[in-house]
Amino acid sequence: MSENKESTKEKDHAQLSGRLTSLDVFRGLTIAAMVLVNNAGDWNNVYWPLEHASWHGWTPTDLVFPFFVFIVGIAIPLAFQRRVDQGGSQHDLYVKIIRRSLLIFFISLIVLHGFPYTLEKFRTIRIPGVLQRIAICYFFASIIFLKFRIRGQAMITAILLLGYWLVMKTVPAPGYQPGDLSMEGSLASWVDRTLLPGHIYKPFYDPEGILSTIPAIATCLSGVITGQWLMTKREPLDKAAGMFAAGALCAIVGWCWNLAFPINKALWTSSYVVFTTGMALQLLALCYWSIDIKGYKRWAKPFVIFGVNALALYVLSGLMTRILGFIEKPRLDGRTGDLKTFIYERIFATWLSPINASLAFALAYVLLWLGLMTILYRRKIFIKV
To answer: How far is Cα 129 from Cα 115, in angstroms, rounded to an integer?
Structure first.
């Protein structure tokens, strides 16, 4: 019996020293969902779970981005430990953190937000964005991980969440009342349009804006703490149970906090951080239990393929979407359209209802990228920065 336990521990350590399959699957599920919700065939016809909440509240789509930020956090202690095991110095780690953060930030800014490359485009280029936020969260979470032990990391997470709540509820945007959390009147919205005029996604605010990135760092730190939990010498089943219990508690706390500080993805409210962290912990616990403990791996293969090249998938699929929208093609009614609409109308909209055609286009786009990512996977090409 003791030999079996020792064997399980050694196997678990080996997984953590290399790649954690359940984490790749969780990452793959998340990036596949991100591609799906970003590529509806017709934005006027989308099933509600595939749309963001209009402001306060949440839909399944609103879980996708925080899940990805959470996963970035989990990978930090796992990746850094591998570098230490391979003889890397702390100086090397700091260089890697800075280099990787800058690369992720500017890949998104130039490759995705800059396309098509015209002078006018760069005059109004959107500066915040999904990968920009990930880069900033990765940078600060990595530095905090290297500088503080797990108790300090937890304290910083709490300070970020409570501090953001206090600031958003008590500091008014000029011309608005304290605690105004409306689209135009929130402090976070005012900061975005004041500091980045002409360079934000919406007229009044940016969903990946400056002030709201502070609690997003807390989401990443929650992942860092989870990654260290996975690296402990506890039994795998205890780890899964711990994540599930912590996730349930976080979801309940976040839901209760929602009464005082509404769950809001665009503002990345503290209640949203705690609630989505709870949901992420429970999904990760399920993946970890089914894949790394029970060994049910066959169903997960497509998500492993997505997960090991997640960053490449996000950038390349986003770039293709922009290219499809840039190439002019006639619509069925004779109006000028783009290549995406041309494909959507002729392949999907001719035989499906509008909402199902829109969904079918998005699913086909995901499957297209599964095929392309499978080619990379089979050739052992893993694109990293």
So the answer is: 14
Place of tokens 């711990």: 242
> How many Cβ atoms sit within 10 Å of the Cβ of residue 384?
9
3-class SS of residue 25 = helix
- Using CA atoms, how far apart are residues 56 and 43, in angstroms rounded to an integer? 20
In a domain, 187, yes or no: yes
Q: What is the pLDDT of residues 6-23, one digit of tens each?
A: 444 444 444 444 468 999
Tokens read off for 350: 């001719």
8 domain residue, yes or no: yes
**Domain range for 273:** 2-378
As a whole number of angstroms, the longest Cα–Cα distance in the chain is 74
Total domains in the fold of the chain:
1
Does some domain include residue 385? no
Residue 199 · residue 122 · CB < 8 Å: no
Q: And the tokens for 206?
A: 């940016």
pLDDT digits (tens, 9 = 90+) for 146-162: 999 999 999 999 999 99
Rounded to whole angstroms, the Cα distance separating 263 from 276 reads 9
Q: Is 163 helix (H, G, I), strand (E, B) or coil?
A: helix
For β-strands 336-338 and 328-330, DSSP reports them as antiparallel
- Amino acid 14: pLDDT: 42
**308 contact partners, CB below 8 Å, separation of at least 6:** 19, 24, 28, 377, 382
Locus of tokens 């796992």: 78
